Amino acid sequence: MENIIAEINKLKISKKAVILSHNYQLPEIQDIADFVGDSLELSRNAADTDANIIVFCGVNFMAETAKILSPKKTVLLPDLRSGCPLADMVTPDDIKKLREENPGAEVVCYINTSAEVKAECDICCTSSNAVDIVNSVNSDMVIFLPDRNLGNYVSKHTKKKMIIWNGYCPTHENLKIEDVLEMKKLYPNAKFVAHPECTEDVLKLADKITSTSGIIKYVKTDPSKDFIIGTETAILHRLKKESPEKNFIPASRKMYCPNMKYNNLESLYESLLNEEPEMEVPEKIRQKAYLTIKKMLDVSKIIVS
Description:
CATH class of the largest domain: Alpha Beta
Number of domains: 3
Number of helices: 15
Order of helices and strands: HEHEHEHEHEHEHEHEHHEHEHEHEHH
Strand order of the largest sheet: 2-1-3-4
CATH superfamily of the largest domain: NadA-like
Helix content: 40-55%
Structural class: alpha/beta
CATH topology of the largest domain: Rossmann fold
Number of strands: 12
Radius of gyration: 19 Å
Strand content: 15-25%
């Protein structure tokens, strides 16, 4: 393993590349990456570098987002099998039909969507800013897609009428209420932290509902020592690295995303060596998708300030 890590680091320097790892990637991928984080956070980090090549160790919509924000950089996705079932649950045609059925509604799409879907929407959101984004739109009616669980969570924090698409993340829906209750029984003093892609009954048990980056921040500042983590299990690697004095318990070992694990050191090395597979987004689609992301970032700045 040491040899391939050394070779990857050599290629990274010689090709002026930056390696991105989502929080759900294998531990060895997280360890070799220049940036580890949420999908949009990573794409923004890469855009701010002078790198010629972005190697995105995540799933396809994440690499697309990096290309949307960095059109002049070469964006590589080490393994093209790294798809996202949630992102695949909605298409541009679905959005066109929803608009016809709900005239006047604004369409808010989760970052976990394809570039083509983003191009058909009014504004993008992340799991951390979804409530603020929905509340920011002008229309009293909002079409929210594709995640029904995140949509249901947002609906409890807005007065907008929401039309929620029936998509879901299989990994987060693998977590059942019985799993959480069992962990709470085993660790009675632990705080349960859950991602809003979990089902409503699971979220009712949570001490904190937040994004992956929010989970990382929360466990650092909360005085508790034990935390039950309700999201993809690979995040525990980063949590343990950054807060070694605390104890992290997976809410369920079933919260494992196989698509995130297609990327490994070997595929990362081959991708960087051969500069493929390269992520391409047609310019017309890229420009439209960029506007939905830019609008979100502009709104977020107003909210923060």
